[in-house]
Design brief:
- Helix content is 31%, strand content 21%.
- The protein has 5 helices and 7 strands, in the order ββαββαβαβαβα.
- A 7-stranded mixed beta sheet has the order 1-3-4-2-5-6-7, with helices on both faces.
- The longest helix is centred in the middle third of the chain and has 17 residues.
- It is globular, with a radius of gyration of 16 Å.
- Bound molecules: guanosine-5'-diphosphate (GDP).
- Guanosine-5'-diphosphate binds next to α1.
């Protein structure tokens, strides 16, 4: 079965980086996970790694504003970036986030193997999602768009929702859109398979 080359359950939290000086640059591949606050990023990571609380949920103070590194089966880092687009965040925090992202994409590109952009399948991707998508495109980085919260849609709503995401984010030829539910695990095998494929495993 696709996705078997990596034992996704063998994951450990390594560290959190609050500033570029603390980023990991040890040559292991990194898949970076991004998405707006509350899109379900922590739930996706916990589902992918089959753990209850490895990724910090939205209300763990501090950790959610840092880059968190999870080493998976000693093969790659799952790099969890701070959620964006939280309207009530203070301006200073938004600025810090933007600076962190810029330094990551401008100076750390060599360490980024691919990205997983998590969006909510029920909604048109936001301007921030589009900006994120541009960053990946401009840096020639493969992207998996994960359309989360699939369980919230009726069957007849799925295709139009995926079309809207496709039309808004315009994935490149090598990119993928995967319908997903962190709640019930739909799409998890496909996500694992896509990560193995990107890593050449
Ligand atoms: P984060 O801020 O992006 O890390 O989001 P969380 O993982 O903390 O999830 C935000 C909320 O969305 C929580 O109430 C989750 O239970 C819920 N959630 C996450 N993924 C799903 C999903 O696939 N389906 C449903 N129905 N709810 C989800």
């Amino acid at each position: 079965m696709a996705g078997n080359a990596i034992n996704f359950q063998k994951a450990e939290y390594i560290k959190s980086a609050a500033a570029p000086g603390q980023f990991i640059r040890d040559g292991l591949p990194q898949i970076i996970f991004v998405g707006r606050s509350n899109v379900g990023k922590s739930s996706v990571i916990n589902r992918l790694l089959n753990r209850k609380n490895l990724a910090f949920t939205g209300n763990s103070p501090g950790k959610t504003r840092q880059v968190n590194y999870f080493l998976t089966d000693n093969q790659f880092y799952l790099t969890d970036l701070p959620g964006y687009g939280y309207a009530k965040a203070p301006e200073s925090e938004k600025l810090r986030w933007a600076e962190l992202m810029e330094s990551l994409f401008q100076r750390e590109r060599a360490h980024i193997t691919a990205g997983v952009l998590i969006v909510d399948i029920r909604h048109k991707p936001t301007k921030d999602d589009e900006k994120m998508r541009e960053w990946f495109r401009d840096s020639n980085c493969k992207l998996i768009i994960l359309a989360n919260k699939l369980d919230k849609l009726k069957k007849s709503q799925i295709e139009p929702a995926l079309n809207l995401i496709q039309d808004t984010l315009k994935p490149g030829e090598l990119d993928k859109i995967i319908p997903y539910s962190a709640q019930n695990g739909t799409g998890n095998d496909e996500l694992r398979g896509a990560i193995c494929e990107i890593l050449g495993l």
